Amino acid sequence: MAALATFHRQSSGAGDSKRPRLMGDILFLTHRVPWPPNRGDKIRSHHILRKLMEFAPVHLACFADDEAEAAETSDLQNGLTSCHIVRRTKPQWMAGIEALVSGKSISVTSFGSKQLQNWIGGLINHGNVDCIFVFSGQMAQYIPDSFSGRVIMDFADVDSAKFESYGDEGYWPMSWINKREGRLLKAFEYKTGARSDKSLFVSTAEAQLFQQRSGLSTAKIMALGNGIDLEFYRPEVVETTKLGGAGPLLVFTGQMDYRPNIEAVASFSKHVMPKILVHFPDTQFAIVGRAPTEAVWGLDGKNGTQVVGAVDDIRTWLKAADVVVAPLRIARGIQNKILEAMAMGKPVVASGDAAEGIDAIHGQHFLVAENIQQEASLICNLLEDPTEADWLGSNAAKLVRDQYSWEHQLFELPGICGLDDHQFAEAAE
Q1: Domains held by the chain: number
Q2: How confident is the model over 395-411, as pLDDT tens digits?
Q3: The pLDDT value given to residue 16
Q4: Which of 61, 113, 147, 201 would give a disulfide with 207, using CB separation of 3.0 to 4.6 Å?
């Protein structure tokens, strides 16, 4: 693995050398370059990093999946005290062998890098780092054993539970691999949570699940929710465009090489769309998102399904949709896709797993389906009653604007990192 970008600049406060130093530096570790904010994990890491930079000098250490990601730029770079980006080149088979030999999870060995470890060690030994903020569990391996400062671990979701679910549903040998991954990740999550001053999760449900599985004190575990860029997701700034066919348009958005998204659209296309087409034969189901796999492309043209792939502006498809669907069969945490659709004033029909963690009411802000049959029924009801659909979407937009701004969701972050209210107020002046 080679370092693709690295720099270090002198700074005495939150990206502005004129500000007084209110606390030591923060080292922010994340498994992907946190810009641009164009997928779920990068959206969260991007906004957390931006908030951290408001009140402390921040160093960033992260990975890039490819050269294109490493070449992306952001205004955040100008405010960082230092930055070290390493290109991930380790093949999955090699990570698997390392995992078997070392007794570690594949999630951890996939992100193992001696180079990144050395850079972090040098920064800790010679810098002024008071706090390490870790985004995503696999990056916790880089917390030095000797570090005596504050450690904040943002797990976001309980990943071990997801792999356990995969293990229960799959066939050997993948079932064995996933069960092993779930078991080892659960132990790693416990060790990391015990080491951290705070463990953060995107929802109360995820935080409670981790507490139950780990047995750690509730004082060390809390929910820190996701927000939405409310300036970006405004329907009035997006041109109205007719997309899809002449009939109703159902839209699913997401990263389309991600297993839960793949399984969701496959299930919806094969099992839900035929039920909808009986009542609304011209309905189109559009799958919108980057990197569709072969399995996803195989759905194109069947049961009214259209695989769109990556688009320049996801908002155009959200605005064109009659209903946005989120039929995930396995889901963890908060689904940004639902919040984005709600912010655009769209009626959403979601599975129970996808809706978990969103503080909204079934029948008032969105609709939650318990099974495939109910998904089809709820969608047909909305297509039959556009006035009801508009009412639901309007309620959804108001809820998101009241509760899901990033400023609102990250309000407690300075205190979590050790800055008291008086200090943060001083920093903001």
Answers
A1: 2
A2: 999 999 999 999 999 99
A3: 46
A4: 201
